């Protein structure tokens, strides 16, 4: 089997997922890497071998005879870089969010359609074991017809992860409902089988805006300052980004296009770090406890409070970063490049998650004014439905995790 030739643009923390694709002789290899910072460029040889081509400008890779490319750069750069590679006919993996505006997402989707080039968005949470378990239960009718989904996201390391570098500046993200929340909004849409069409939201910069100790971190990545044993309680944080104007607390209500409803709450100063989903249907309720080594419980009989659910599904941890999801999405991307295999992720769904998050951000900055979420272009929807069908098999199947 000839290796799929891949490039990676952006050598920061998230570029670690591309290393799962560097398997010379086994199906794929990283042959080119790009980053604007010299020290990160110098690390590429150690990561990918002496033959890797290293450049400072992504444009130098547009004619590098790549089969595919990972775009894992800061969010506000996704649009420009993805469009360039798609128009060059190079299959493109874009880390979530697809872009930081709905218009930016639509531009990327249109570039993929016009060039007829494969586009993949890194919504790895669709592959998370606990999410697959919940979706499998819903598909099997464990709660009946889904009517409501609630998600509480406790971002316990938010001060370190999102308020010390470019994430804290809304010019780079729009807001953390987009940068961070699109993961959960996409999962809500996937579990419900419906997208958001109207939102209202409230939120604010409740804690980190009070911290005046700031620091520039040009050339640094999160692992350079990450010290989980320090910086607690949240107001003890030091060295925040010079610009901090994104919300650290957000509450979003969603009306779905099938008549259902959902809510999403995100807090960046909790002591714990995990997500809790509740799905309520016409015949029961399910809820997860934990992200990894988790359990999903389903209640199907009337009662007062009881811990002994009617159905308990243990969800053990899997190997690999992000609960085993990163190797899954890399394998899926490589198979998609090689033979056009169906994907569990969806560019249209990725766009819908950004559109809902952007509308909610606009709503909370307008004191909760309800906002309609724009629908994607029907022609673009039809195109992706024909060239990139979403894998609708049982999420618990293991066959799709075979090697590339």
UniProtKB/TrEMBL annotation:
State the name under which the record lists this protein. Gfo/Idh/MocA family oxidoreductase
Q: Which InterPro entries match?
A: Gfo/Idh/MocA-like_OxRdtase_C, Gfo/Idh/MocA-like_OxRdtase_N, Gfo/Idh/MocA_oxidoreduct, NAD(P)-bd_dom_sf
Under the heading PANTHER family, the entry gives: CONSERVED EXPRESSED OXIDOREDUCTASE (EUROFUNG) (PTHR43708), OXIDOREDUCTASE (PTHR43708:SF8)
Concerning its family, UniProt says: Belongs to the Gfo/Idh/MocA family.
Coiled coil region boundaries:
none
Q: Which residues form the Gfo/Idh/MocA-like oxidoreductase C-terminal domain?
A: 135-371
Annotated ranges, domain Gfo/Idh/MocA-like oxidoreductase N-terminal: 5-123
Q: Give a GO molecular function annotation for the protein.
A: nucleotide binding
Q: Which Pfam families match?
A: GFO_IDH_MocA, GFO_IDH_MocA_C
List the taxonomic lineage.
Bacteria, Bacillati, Actinomycetota, Actinomycetes, Kitasatosporales
Superkingdom field: Bacteria
């Amino acid at each position: 089997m000839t290796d799929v030739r891949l490039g990676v643009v952006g050598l920061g923390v998230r570029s670690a997922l591309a290393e799962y694709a560097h398997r010379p002789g086994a199906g794929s290899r990283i042959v080119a890497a790009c980053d604007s910072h010299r020290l990160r460029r110098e690390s590429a040889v150690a990561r990918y071998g002496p033959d890797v081509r290293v450049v400072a400008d992504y444009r130098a890779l547009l004619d590098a005879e790549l089969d595919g490319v990972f775009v894992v750069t800061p969010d506000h750069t996704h649009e420009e870089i993805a469009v360039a590679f798609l128009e060059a006919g190079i299959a493109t993996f874009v880390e979530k969010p697809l872009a930081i505006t709905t218009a930016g997402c639509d531009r990327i989707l249109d570039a993929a359609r016009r060039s007829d080039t494969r586009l993949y968005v890194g919504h790895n949470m669709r592959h998370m074991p606990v999410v697959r378990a919940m979706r499998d239960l819903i598909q099997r009718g464990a709660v009946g017809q889904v009517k409501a989904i609630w998600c509480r996201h406790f971002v316990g390391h938010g001060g370190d992860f999102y308020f010390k570098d470019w994430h804290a500046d809304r010019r780079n993200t729009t807001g953390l409902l987009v940068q961070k929340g699109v993961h959960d909004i996409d999962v809500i849409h996937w579990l419900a089988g419906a997208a958001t069409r109207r939102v209202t939201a409230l939120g604010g910069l409740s804690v980190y805006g009070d911290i005046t100790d700031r620091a520039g971190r040009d050339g640094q990545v999160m692992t350079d300052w990450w010290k989980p044993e320090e910086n607690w309680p949240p107001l003890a944080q030091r060295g925040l980004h010079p610009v901090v104007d994104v919300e650290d607390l957000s509450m979003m209500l969603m009306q779905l296009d099938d008549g259902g409803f959902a809510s999403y709450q995100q807090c960046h100063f909790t002591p714990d770090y995990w997500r809790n989903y509740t799905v309520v249907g016409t015949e029961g309720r399910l809820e997860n406890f934990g992200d990894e080594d988790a359990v999903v419980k389903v209640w199907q009989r009337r009662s007062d409070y009881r811990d002994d659910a009617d159905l308990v599904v243990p969800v053990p941890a899997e190997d690999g970063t992000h609960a085993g999801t990163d190797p899954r999405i890399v394998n899926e991307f490589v198979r998609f490049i090689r033979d056009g295999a169906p994907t569990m992720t969806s560019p249209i769904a990725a766009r819908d998650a950004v559109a809902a998050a952007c509308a909610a951000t606009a709503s909370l900055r307008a004191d909760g004014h309800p906002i309609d979420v724009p629908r994607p272009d029907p022609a673009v929807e039809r195109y992706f439905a024909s060239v990139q069908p979403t894998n609708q098999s049982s999420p618990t199947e293991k066959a799709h995790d075979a090697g590339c």
